[in-house]
From TrEMBL:
Part of the 50S ribosomal subunit. Keywords: Ribonucleoprotein, Ribosomal protein. This is Large ribosomal subunit protein uL30. GO terms for biological process: translation. One of its GO terms (molecular function) is structural constituent of ribosome.
Length: 61
């Protein structure tokens, strides 16, 4: 993957008190604990998951 097609995602808030579907999205993105990071491809499926839980994440292009 080239650097332009990668999103660096960091979980910055706790999952306690969030909806079950939001927790499933966090797990689907490969994040587990606070400050865990993942580098994922920039595609519509990943963007949709990020948009749903954007209040929990920090996103770097």
């Amino acid at each position: 993957m080239s650097s332009g097609n990668v999103l660096r995602i960091t979980l910055i808030k706790s999952l306690i008190g969030t909806k079950r579907t939001h927790r499933k999205n966090v797990i689907g993105l490969g994040l587990k604990k606070i400050n865990s990071r993942a580098e994922l491809p920039n595609n519509p499926a990943i963007r949709g998951m990020i948009n749903k839980i954007s209040y929990l994440l920090k996103i770097e292009d």
